[in-house]
Every structure is written in structure tokens, then in C-alpha cells.
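User: I'll paste a sequence; please echo it back and then give the predicted structure.

Assistant: Echoing your sequence first, then the prediction.
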Amino acid sequence: MKVYRPTYFAQFKCDGKACGSRCCRDWRIVLDDDTRGKYLRLPADDREEIFRHVDESAQVFKLQRSGACPFLGEDFLCRLQLKHGEEFLTAICQSFPRVTYKLGAEIFLQAMTLTCPVAAVLILLREEPITFEVVDKLTARQVFDFTARIPSAEKFLSRQRAAIEILQRRELSINRRLEELCAFFGEKCSVPVDFDEENHAAALTEIFGEMYDASLTVAKSCQLAEAYLAARKNILAQLRSNFPDVLENYLVNEFVMRCCPCAFKGDEAFNIRAFVTTWRAVEFAAVLTAISKGRLAVEDLLELLCVLSDKLDHSRGGMTAIKNFAELHDAEVFYSMMIDRGD
């Protein structure tokens, strides 16, 4: 068995007190068959206590009125784990924030989602480039099988490593790295195309509305786009100057965590369009956050990236809008709206 993963993986330790057990609130907690079987083998009193909190029709735990998991204690610890051990956590609870893909026979890829604030600090605030390792043990119980999407695990890993090398070329600007990434995966524009700021802002405003499930009026959309355009260059320049490592680490981690360039059904060029568009949506949200707060300190940026990861991972609207944009536009239009050659 070979498990490819970032070296930060071994350093992660869940700490509910550090984040208020954020992952134990407001999310659907699915009761998988394996964990259900373990619960059924417990003594009668324990079984009754657990299953009175289960919605049998949906196979999920019933959340408290506060949105918290019924087994979340006031000390931010899981009462199920404290009483019965980690093996009695559901597959999704045991795995989070780890994400695991099966690429081929006995070949796996792992990373962590930034939805977890503890993982986000571990991943984003490192000054050295993210590095990777290969281990021979897999403990994750929730695995996404991508073997049908990835005919050759070796070829996929080789191309992913090449992409990471591009994203970690610190002598290049972020914009230039993204352009080279597009070219590497076949998303090339045959003729020179000028960057269209207004269409760029309009597209991101629409994606932003879908991501936050906001029914924006035409007037509100125009207001957001105008505010973004007015502040965009100055704020993004500050962002790249003040937090270059955070931006790079975000891009590298997202590329691996979403199993790019095979995150979605479609060719590599389509997947890269979606990846770059997602990054532009992050920039858009960062500019609006800076306008709203009057600043963009590192803690603001970390919180923003956690929230956006939550929206992309747990809300279909934002990712659907991103995929629709990537699917509906050819290379020329995509370059004009998402490839900014300015620094």
C-alpha cells in the first residue's frame, strides 16, 4: 500500500477547545452502516441513548436546537468518544478534516480541508513550502473512490507533482503561476487576449451570490461589482505582499485536497478552469472582506478561507456556479475574464 500525503498530516491533532468544536455544529452527521453495527452491539441502555438521537429516515444524527451534535459536551469533547473510544465515532467524524482518495489498487492520496480552523493554521501559516511523503498505512474509514476517473494513478501523481512545482515557484507572481498552470494542462489561448475587468467582476459577483445563496438584485450586484473594481488592485497587491506564503499554501493544499486535475468529471483543462475560477472567487471575497472590515489581518484571512472552504465543501451553490462558468466558456473568454497578467 502507498499513501501519498503532505507531511503536515502527521502533525495534526484535533482540538475542539481551540475552535469550539466547529465541525460538530450545523453539519449533517451521517450514521454509516459500519458504525451503526458497532452501536447495535452495545448494551441496551447505551443503544437506547444513542438511537434516540438518530433520524432513521435520513440516517443522520438529530442536531440540537443550537445546531450542535447531540453528543457534543460543554467541554467541546465528544461524549461518544469519551465513553466508548475513537472507533465509535462515525466514519465522517473519524476522518474529518482528512480527505482520502483511492487512486488505484492500494494507492491513495490524502490531504486536509481548510474547513477545520486547526488544520487551516497548521497548513496556511507555514513559511516553508508544503512537502509530501509516502506512508504504507491508511487509517481513514471514509474514502472517495476515484479509480474510475483516474485510469493511471502513476500518471496522475506525476502530473499533480508537476502542478505543485508550478504553484510553488516563488520567483513568479501568483497570476503568472496560474497562467503557467493553465498552459501545462492544455488550457491555452491561441491568440493574445486582454483582461476584461468589468466582465471579470460581473462573473465573480454572480458566483459569490450563488456561493452564499443570496438572491442579489441587479442593483446590489452592480454595487458589489463596482466596489470590488474600485478596490481590487490595491487590496490584492497588499494581500500578495503581506501574505505570500498563505496564498501559496492555500493553492497547493486545495489542488491536492480536491484531487485536481481530476476533481470533476471532464478533461484536465476544464478542471483547471474550475480551479482558477475558485481562486478568483477567493480573491473577490477577500477584497469585499477588506472593504467591510477596513483591514485584512491574518486572522481575518484565515477565517475567510475557513468559511469559503465550508461554502465550497458543504454548499452546492458555489461550486455549481464555478463549474458552470468553467463549462460554458471557451479558452478565449476564460482568459479574458480569469487570467490577469498584472501583478
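Residues 2 and 107 are 5 Å apart (CA to CA). The longest helix spans residues 268-293.
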